[in-house]
Amino acid sequence: MKRVETKAHACAARVTAFCMVAVLSYMGVKSASAQGGEKHSASVAGSEVGRLWVERAIAPGFQHLAQQSRNLQQHFEQGCIEADPAWLHKTSSGFESVVKAWSGVAFLRFGPLVEDNRYERLSFWPDPRGVMLRQVSGTLQQFQGEEPAVPIGQSSVAVQGLPALEYVLYRDKGVLNHSLSADERRPLCRYAADLTKNIASVAGELSEAWLLPDGEYAQRFVKPAENNPVYRSNQEILSEGVKALSTGLQFVRDIQLAPPLMGSESKVAVKKAPYWRSGLTGPAIAASLRGMRTFVLAPDLLPADQEWIVDQIEAELGRAAQQANTLPLADEAVPSPSLRQEWMLLGRIVDNAKDLTDADLASVLGVNVGFNALDGD
Length: 377
Description:
Layout lengths: L1 H13 L4 H9 L21 H27 L9 H19 L14 H5 L8 H12 L19 H9 L11 H29 L5 H7 L11 H28 L19 H17 L9 H19 L11 H29 L12
Keywords: Signal
Subcellular location: Cell envelope
InterPro entries: Imelysin-like, Imelysin-like_IPPA, Imelysin_sf
C-alpha cells in the first residue's frame, strides 16, 4: 500500500481531474515486483529492437502521414473556389485522414520530429493564449493580395500546421462553408493550399529521415555504436522508445483530456480539447493510442515470463482507443454529467497504461523515465 499512498499524495498535490481515478485504476494493476518478476537487462529485447521499431512502427507511420498529406495537397490544387458538394466532402475526409495519421506518430517526440521545429510546424497546440487565432487573421490579410509577404514555411509556426488548417476549413466563414462567394473563398483557398503544401513538405522530410536503408536518422537508430553520435547502445534506444511511449500517454492524459475537465464538476470545456472545431477530438486521440499500441508491440521487448506487462499495456491501449473513438462532444455551457463520465473513464484507462509503462515496463527494461518532452511546457 505504500506505493498507492505515495501516488495518492502526489495526486493531492497536483489536483488534476484524474487524481482519484488514477489511484483506483492502480488498485487493479499488479506491478512487476508483485508478480515476482526480477529486473532484466536491456538485452532481453535483443539487438534488433531499433530495427523492429523502425520497420514495423516508426517508418510506416511517417510514410502514412506523408502519403495522406500529399493526397490533401493534391486535392487543393483545384476545385476550392467552386467547392461543389463532392469536393467539400473529400476535403473534410482528407483532413480527417491527415489528422489521424499525424496523431498516430505525434508521440515520437525525438530525433527528426523535434529538429527544425517540425513538431510545432505540424501542430502548434496546445495554444492557451490564442496565438494561432491572432496570427492567422493577419496571415489571411496577406493572401488578399497577389502574393503573401512571407512564405508559409518561413512564417511563425503558429500559422503553418494542422490547427491553422482546421480553423481555415471549419470556422464559420471557412472553406467548408458552401455559401461563401468566390471572392470570399479565394484568400481562404490560397492559404489552405499553401498550408497543405507545407504540411506535406514537413511530413515528407520526416518520412525520408526514417526510411531504411538510406534515412540518416533511421540508420543511427538501428545501429547503435560507440561512434554513433546519437545512440551508443541498445539500452539508449530502449530508453528513447519507452520514454516516447510514456510521454505520449502523459500528453493524452494531462494535455488533451484533463484541461477540458477542470473548472467544473458537471461540464466538459470541449473548446480546450484538440480538433474540437472539426469534431475530431475522439478520433484523433484514438489514432494516437493505436499508434502507441503498434509501437509497443513492434519488437519482442520482454521474455515470455514477463510478457504479461506488454499484454496489459496493449489491452489498456486497445480499450482506451475504443473509448476515445466514440468520445462525445457537447455544448460546454450545458451541464452533462454523463458526458463528463465518459471523459473521466478514458482518463482512467490511459492512466492505467501509463502506470504499467512507467512502473513495470520501464523497470524491467532498466529505463529511468525521468524528465520528458513535456516537462517545462
